[in-house]
Amino acid sequence: MNASDTLNVTHEDARAIDDCWNRIGIHGDKSCPLLEEHIHCRNCSVYSAAATRLLDRYSLQQDQRDAVATRVETNVKTRSLLMFRLGEEWLGLATRSLVEVAPLQAIHSLPHQRSRALLGVANVRGALVACLSLVELLDLDGSVAPASGGRVMPRMLIIAAHGGPVVVPVDEVDGIHAIDERILDAASQSGAQASAKYTRGVLQYRGHSLRWLDEEQLLSAVTRSLT
Q1: Which Pfam families has this protein been placed in (predicted)?
Q2: How many Cβ atoms from other residues are within 10 Å of residue 193's Cβ?
């Protein structure tokens, strides 16, 4: 399942669910008779049930992923990584795991969270998508203040997880960069990643100490957080 397929899965599920919040609710014409009582759709049991169904889908997709083979690229001299920041730490993630970089959206918490990493759900073009904390998954220091700077815009990364796309908020996105695989090989063999969770290596890039994430380990952890 590739990145576009995973996003299509979300839209198929959205069509299967009566997304009344987009028609008659807070994102629609606001004609729903329950709005007066609940104020916002996220307080309604219909919205909560849809979110629960979304999370149940991740479990189902995880059961079906065993037949998916990992694509192996050969004769590639560079590898594309998305560089982003959480707090004071810079991280790199293979772009093959990325669906898109999106503007920051409101995150709606769920009444009964399934894991500490699950922040809630976000509305991505009318579809409910699970939202996770990479700070929690990677055991980062959440108390560290974000690096100060000029016009820094927090973003959301839409990641192609095994059971379908998820969104993760980040403090800053630097962009996509092609890294010489010899540099990556040296970083993975240095042993610097031994104490860092879901990390293939640590390398110096543009004055930053960059933590290169192991996408397979990270995506497996994402799936476990949702099932």
Answers
A1: CheW
A2: 19
Q: Which helix (H) or strand (E) holds 127?
A: strand 127-132
pLDDT tens per residue, range 54-94: 766 666 655 555 444 444 444 548 889 999 999 989 999 99
Buried b (16+ CB within 10 A) or exposed e, 16-30: eeebbbbebbbeeee
For residue 57, the tally of other CB atoms under 10 A from its CB is 19
Q: Which residue in this structure is represented by tokens 């690096």?
A: 147
Instruction: Determine the Cα–Cα distance for residues 83 and 91; give it in Å rounded to an integer.
Output: 6
Residues forming a β-bridge with 120: 131
pTM beyond 0.90: the answer is no
pLDDT by residue (tens digit) across 13-29?
555 667 787 888 888 88
Q: Phi and psi of 208, rounded to 5°?
A: -110, 145
Domain boundaries, the chain: 1-227
